[in-house]
Amino acid sequence: MTTLITLPDTGDVVSTVPKRLFIAGAWVDALAGDTLPVEDPATGEVLCHVADGRAEDGQRAVAAAVAAQAEWARTAPRARSEILRRAYEIVLSRTDELARLMTLEMGKPLAEARGEVAYAAEFLRWFSEEAVRVEGGFATLPDGRNRMLLMRQPVGPCLLITPWNFPLAMGARKIGPAVAAGCTMVLKPAPQTPLSSLALAEILAEAGLPAGVLNVVPTSRAGEVVEPLLRGGQIRKLSFTGSTQVGRILLAQCAEKVVRPSMELGGNAPFIVFDDADLDTAVAGAMVAKMRNMGEACTAANRFFVHRSVADEFAARLAERMGALVVGPGTQPGVDVGPLIDRTGRGKVEELVADAVAHGARVLVGGVVPDGPGYFYPPTVLAGVADDSQLLRTEIFGPVAAILTFDDEDDIVSVANDTEWGLVGYVFTRDLDRALRVSERLEVGMVGLNTGLVSNPAAPFGGVKQSGLGREGGRVGIDEFLEYKYVAVPV
Ligand code: ADP
Predict the structure, then answer these.
(1) Taking the alpha carbons of 107, 110, 112, 115 in that order, is the dihedral positive or negative?
(2) 298 part of the active site
(3) Which entry of 18, 190, 226, 277 is 20 to 30 Å from 158 by CA?
(4) Residue whose CA is closest, atom 10 of ligand 1?
(5) How many CB atoms lie within 10 A of CB 308?
């Protein structure tokens, strides 16, 4: 057994985590010898350097995945299941180390990082359970003269591309079903947060995943590495989580060789509070829907629509709760809100708030960037946001709640749906008819009804419209990695 990383109390978690590419079961340098820096967003300082893959390294990784595919597809489902189960247990047993590593490279407070470790582990457990429940079918066809045999087979070598905001969970949410289905894969993590993915790869190897089944290629040249792989004809599936803008580029690249895509893209979540809502529940839900991960989540509430009769009270209570949060480095005890991912991310939030204020919004709390190092932005509540403000039409990806008022249910459903995105919506009401009516009418893949949290490994996560294609997690999550084969057999 290898030791992944040392305990936080006794050493530096960063120094012992693997920092090379993982190809065909071996830790290797990039062929050109490049490395990329990994920054701590709480200080802006470099934590370490990691091998920086180029196109040729991507090709090596795909070759390893292709070479391992046939044998891996023949592996007994129970064997694949037990690898995931062991990985689940190892991940949980290393919660503190993994959480600390994630906090250092990504910024989220340790308590949230621990929550993400549990969430990531849960995907491994869920798909260890699904691995042995893949069912085909058999039927006599309506004409009575033919039989239909349905097989389920792995789609083949997959390319998995993950974002920086949930560096461990997004990897586990893709690796889990791919392993369960019998696919091999190449994982390209976000350049800001490669350490969590490398740690996860080491854990899966320790859990018994055969060489070549999972290959990991961090790179600062995503386009240069990914495009030839999608156009090369050997990758059969792409599972991508990231921005809609990049998703569109990748869909176009998938078209050439008809690579099967799953896309978890951006969101512009409406958070609707009706006049009959329980305000305590609504404020608590708003805190989760807005502040989980400092607002750096595609599920983050982006537009708060509050019925005029309760808007002032909701805004005041939310501002009080937001203003009480402690901002600081995620590694420090008692911190609620860590830094944003980088200077660019924070700069975008600053611009969006300035634009909203220029259009007439009132800042109830926050709105001023603190002095000092790191990419911190304070929890901010804006009331009286005007319809033509930029932040209503783009993902804020930061701790800023933009509040608008409404009078009429029909109107607000239309306004909520007036966006190209459709990932998630949040609805707060105590009227059951209204709850179901609005849930049905919202053009989204998920609804939080009197709750600010929808993510769960046992539920199908995903969006409609330009928020994506396909679902991750739930009973259907594994389907994205399986093909049907129909065999016709005459009676
Ligand atoms: P964000 O803006 O939140 O970083 P991105 O969509 O840019 O979201 O990034 C999500 C993932 O997509 C990351 O792993 C990133 O490296 C990758 N990525 C970005 N641009 C490309 C591209 N042109 N081709 C392939 N992957 C890309």
Answers:
(1) positive
(2) yes
(3) 18
(4) 242
(5) 11
Q: Who lines ligand 1 at CB under 6 A?
A: 161-163, 188, 190-191, 222-223, 226, 242-243, 246, 249-250
Helical spans, DSSP H, in 4-54: 13-16
Does 264 participate in catalysis according to the annotation? yes
The predicted pLDDT at position 7 comes to: 39
pLDDT digits (tens, 9 = 90+) for 257-283: 999 999 999 999 999 999 999 999 999
> In degrees, to the nearest 5, what angle opens at C-alpha 123 toward C-alphas 118 and 125?
90
**Mean pLDDT in residue range 33-52:** 97
Q: Closest Cα to residue 81, out of 151, 153, 199, 177?
A: 177
pTM, two decimal places: 0.97
Average pLDDT over residues 175-199: 98
253 CA closest ligand 1 atom index: 24
Residue 456: its pLDDT value, please? Answer: 97
For residue 242, give the DSSP letter. S
Do 155 and 184 meet the contact criterion of CB atoms below 8 Å apart? no
From the candidates 183, 298, 395, 472, which is the catalytic residue? 298
Name, in order, each residue with C-beta under 8 angstroms of 55's C-beta and a sequence gap of 6 or more: 221, 224, 225, 228
Q: How far apart are CA 104 and CA 38, in angstroms?
A: 9
Tokens matching residue 71: 């044998």
**What are the structural domains of the chain?**
13-265+467-490 (3.40.605.10), 269-456 (3.40.309.10)
Q: Copy the structure tokens of residue 143.
A: 């004409």
∠ CA 198-202-204, rounded to 5°: 115
